[in-house]
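agent> step 3/5: call structure_predict on target 'Uridylate kinase' (Halorubrum ejinorense).
agent> reason: downstream docking stage needs a structural representation; sequence fetched in step 2, passing through unchanged.
tool.input:
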Amino acid sequence: MRVVVSIGGSVLAPDLDPERVAAYAEAIERLVTDGCEVGVVVGGGGVAREYIETARDLGANEVELDRLGIGTTRLNARLLIAALGDRANLAPATDYEEAGAALRRDEVAVMGGVTPGQTTDAVAAAFAESVDADLLVYATSADGVYDADPNADPDATQFATLSPAELVEVVLPMSRDAGASAPVDLLAAKLIDRAGIRSVVLDGTDPTAVVDAVLRGDHTGTDVVPVDADEPSRWAGNR
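tool.output (status=ok):
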């Protein structure tokens, strides 16, 4: 089973916590031990936002800010690579071909951002499409996709299951707001819809949640299921 895991920077390394990074490395190693090919895309998190805000105050333009964010995602990716040791590629992949080549070498392919104007949400979806991944998992700070921001609306309702097209419809109005509340951005949703990628959006605060979702399909988040898609065969035997 080939899986791409997108890990938010604040999920992977809150306050640059080495124990959390080590726990994520252990979770990924568990997936590899169980026969999965694993690609990982790491976000920038709070550290990236701090750098971007400072650079914006200094007059940097949006492309410069994006490049600063990309650099931070790659620093976070290096933290995970350090924890994975020789299981991972030596340095964060800088494009999809490089990441795919790492998978073909039976390495955990770790990467951060790629190009200005594209979030790591979208990078993960494009990476998953480029390697024909069986599953894409978004490990976020939110427990799935909601019809409104659950932090602002106590009546927000979580979606248990969405089709990729429905995900686009849900994310579209949220993407228009500053500080968008959707756990997956609009471009990522459109790429998931285009490629028909089976996806899961879940709370990644506990790295074992990713293991349970990948190996058994067990989670409390949101399943994004393409029309007429079959459930991964390994889930039936592991539940």
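agent> step 4/5: record observation. The beta strands are 2-7, 37-42, 109-111, 135-140, 161-162, 199-203, 222-224.
agent> proceeding.
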